[in-house]
Amino acid sequence: MTAQFCPTKIEKMLLTTDGSEFSEGAVREAIKLAKTCSSKLFALSVVETNPEYEAVAPQVVEKAEKETRKILESVKDRASKEGVDCEIIARHGESPYEYIVEEAEKAQANMIIMGRRGRKGLKRLMMGSETARVIGHAKCNVLIVPRAASVDFKRIVVATDGSKYSDAAVSEAVSISKRCGSSLFAISVVPSETESPFDIVHMEMHKDIISEKESKMAECLVKDIKDLAEKEGVGTQGFVYSGKPYESIISMAKEKHADLIVVGSHGRTGLAKLLMGSVTERVIGLAECAVLVVKAA
Q1: Which of 195, 231, 284, 288 has the most CB atoms at less than 10 Å from its CB?
Q2: Under a CB-based contact definition with an 8 Å cutoff, are residues 65 and 38 in contact?
């Protein structure tokens, strides 16, 4: 089922695609979202190359650019059939993320929509350097869509750690839920080696597992979300987990059959500050559903 209401203010969105099966989810959901929101869609594909390679094998680069044009024209045709205004953009160069960020700013896009490459094992913990860089440098929100994911804005998980970055994610999640009539599930995770989910109503029985101070803090964070959501007429369930944050968020999303996880970005730039320690990165790498990364103002 497609969302009946536009989930958030999206006048313009930038879709990135390479024509692979891993981009299909992003293409499909971008067109669907653009149709629902009456948004203009910009479809971008970047041929990764460098000056030395272009000089040695210009015919190969030219062939790649022609293939890229075909991919983009196909996206435009699909969008047109749905009544979506789509403008295509082809670029080539050494750093795809720079072109993605540049084109998003040029288009004044409210959102960037990207696919996620299929990975196994430890590699799934890494979202990919280009995705990390886009999230680090982009000024707008970024939606990451796995190939099989459908974003219907019906069941949304939002994670909070009490920072201003997660506050922005909470605000966006509540706003989307209000517009779309979504079921909202709020989670705060107390880091530990074991993972045990408890409804906040029953937290008092489990003080022996996680420290009282940390559990109280997490409990308050979730209660704040519930209070905020209820003021907006959004029914919300709140949970505190003990465990590895990214595992807990993924676990709850599966349990609640979420079609979207909303998280904040800690405003970092460059790949060096977005490595394996990033909860957001691991959630993106492992989630079966789409992940919306909200940028704090």
Answers
A1: 284
A2: no
Please, are residues 87 and 42 in contact by the beta-carbon 8 Å criterion? Answer: yes
Distance of alpha carbon 248 from alpha carbon 253, whole angstroms: 9
144, 291 Cβ separation under 8 angstroms: yes
What are the tokens at 206?
Answer: 């489990």
Spell out the domain ranges in the chain: 12-145, 155-258
Which residue matches tokens 């969008």? 79
Please give the Cα distance from 39 to 160 (Å, whole number). Answer: 29
Return the residue matching tokens 């003990």. Answer: 242
- 3-class secondary structure per residue, 61-102: HHHHHHHHHHHHHHHHHHHHHCCCCEEEEEEEECCHHHHHHH
Nearest Cα neighbor of 48 from 30, 63, 64 is 64
Instruction: For 170-208, give one letter per residue: b (16+ CB within 10 A) or e.
Output: bbbbbebbbbbebbbbbbbbbebeeeeebebeebeeeee
Rounded mean pLDDT of 267-290?
69
C-alpha span between 279 and 92 (Å, rounded)? 31
Q: pTM (2 decimals)?
A: 0.86
Mean pLDDT is highest, among 14-23, 46-55, 271-280, for: 14-23
Between the alpha carbon of residue 91 and those of residues 16, 131, 150, the distances in Å are 11, 17, 28
Hey, is 110 helix, strand or coil?
coil
Residues whose CB is less than 8 angstroms from the CB of residue 205 and which lie 6 or more positions away in sequence, other chains included: 198
Question: Looking at domain 155-258, which CATH architecture does it have?
Answer: 3-Layer(aba) Sandwich (3.40)
Which residue matches tokens 């007429």?
233
| H or E stretch at 103 | helix 96-107
| Fold adopted by 12-145 | Rossmann fold (3.40.50)
d(CA 264, CA 45): 26
